Amino acid sequence: MNCNIFKIKVYDYLDGEIIDEVLLLSIQQHLEECTCCNDLYKTKIKVKEQFTSELTYKNILFASRNIQVMNEIKSDYYKDSIFNRLSLYLKRNRFKFVGHFVVIALSIFFITNLKYSISVFENSVFQIESKLNISLKLKSINEIEDNIPDGMWLYNNKILVKDVHNLRIYDLKTREYVSVNDEVNGYLDDFTISRDGKKIIYKYSVTERKENPYWIYNVENKTKIQLNSKEDIWDVSFDDTGRYIIGEIANLTPQKFIIVDTSKGTSNIIDTKTFDFKLNSNDPIQISNSYSLDGKNIFFKLTTWRAVSLTLSDNYKYGIYKYSLKYPTTVEPLLWLKDNGDSILKYDIIDNGKSIIFNGKYHGELGVFIFNLESKNVKNALTNLKIANTNILFLNYELSSDKTKIAYSIKLSEENSIGKYNIYTAILSGDTLYGDIKICSDMASIIDPIFIDKRSSGWSLDNKQLLLTTSEMPESNDDPFAAIHNSITYKYRYFLVTFN
């Protein structure tokens, strides 16, 4: 650690807010080796003691940590009273810092007059909580000791376990499995779960069978119904309500959407050949990631291709469009990335339909981005979080069921973090993220709660728990092509993160 980094971190160190053991050890070692920083640290302690002793009223602590004030005031000039200190401070800095005087004076006034209106915030998350009425505080991280295969979180302590041939639900309380599919002589072709984790749609294919329909499984009552569609569909997803299923009819050009009302058993097919995508070219297009909030509008990702570079990623362009069932002959372009190499991997509609959140690359920068449909502005949602300036190799995210919280995984580019992931959570309000919490770092082969094109949540239904899954390759394997032959038996580890 160098002196510049120490000067930035010294305030967090003073307040006991550094939980990263490596960083904590680096700071302590630097204090032992650097005389100048050690003197600075002792000075900051004196400053903090002087301020907190004066700004305490009946055990209510008003903690001011304004960096400019703390850096300018020198303990050598302190006298007996707070007023003398402020007088000397203002005299040395003239009118430049009059604002600081006003802030401190008003703070003292409110402390002496408002006995019950001041709360002690432990960190920035709680300041956001007071404004948004949303809490996010890490309570515990516990590893699930049960030996469970590859799976994902459903709800009520249930994990959906999948392999090539079966879908099963594992109950953490009873430690029993319930089979989702009855067939045994085929393979699992496709599946996804509803946002609330109560429904599963899957396709089980048997080679001898001409038709392999989709089935909708109800997790609560353990029943299933066949999807009412004669079409061969793929890339299916639930809308946010869990009532409608949206998919694309396979092997058709131009492509066709299908939307199924599971409560009525009716379906509607939408032909895209009449769509005007408002593109200034005849480049080949691909529609994917169809999605709906409530079955009334369909959002989808549009990808075009043109050979402009030897770099493969530069040949693709991406956009998000909206189709309304009220206007069956029109389609509305919402977002279009113009720069070569920019990309959209996964997206969601947030803020009551006012914004789009997506991960990928924008203007050459990797991140999680939020596009405001009213202002037409795109911003990196991580800019006001601690991770903003970190070199990132890959980033993905997952929203909670109510879309007020987000978990995101980051693969870092530091040498000691190659192949490792850090997991963070934050509060999502409007088009902004607040108060990130680092859950874990350097997790190997993370299969976070995150999927690039499936809306499967790692969050619990009450949005208070998050399931993280990691996989570990066996130490030895005689088959050098085991990954290709699907003969590797991975060890899966599950970590249940609980918030207050």
Short description:
Strands 4-5-6-7 form a four-stranded antiparallel β-sheet, with no helix packed on it. The protein is α+β, with helices and mostly antiparallel strands. The chain contains eight helices and 29 strands.
Describe this structure in words.
The protein has about 500 residues and is α+β, with helices and mostly antiparallel strands. The protein has a domain at about 5-120. It contains eight helices and 29 strands. It has helices at about 5-15, 20-35, 35-55, 65-70, 80-95, 100-115, 125-130, 480-485, and strands at about 55, 60, 140-145, 150-155, 160, 165-170, 175-180, 185-195, 200-205, 215-220, 225, 235-240, 245-250, 255-260, 265-270, 285-290, 295-305, 315-325, 330-335, 345-350, 355-360, 365-370, 380, 390-400, 405-410, 420-430, 430-445, 465-470, 490-500. The strands form eight sheets. Strands 4-5-6-7 form a four-stranded antiparallel beta sheet, with no helix packed on it. β14 and β15 form a beta hairpin. The longest helix is centred in the N-terminal third of the chain and has 20 residues, at about 35-55. The radius of gyration is 27 Å and the shape is globular.
Estimated helix fraction:
10-25%
Gross morphology: globular
Largest sheet, order of strands side by side?
A: 4-5-6-7
Main sheet specs: 4 strands, antiparallel
Rounded to an integer, what's the Rg over CA atoms? 27 Å
Would you tell me the structural class of the helices and strands? alpha+beta
User: Helical stretch count?
Assistant: 8
Mean pLDDT: 73
Q: What would you call the quaternary organization? A: single chain
The portion of residues forming beta strands comes to 35-45%
- DSSP summary, beta strand count: 29
Segments where pLDDT lies below 50 for 5+ residues? Answer: 51-81, 106-131, 446-456
End-to-end Cα distance: 34 Å
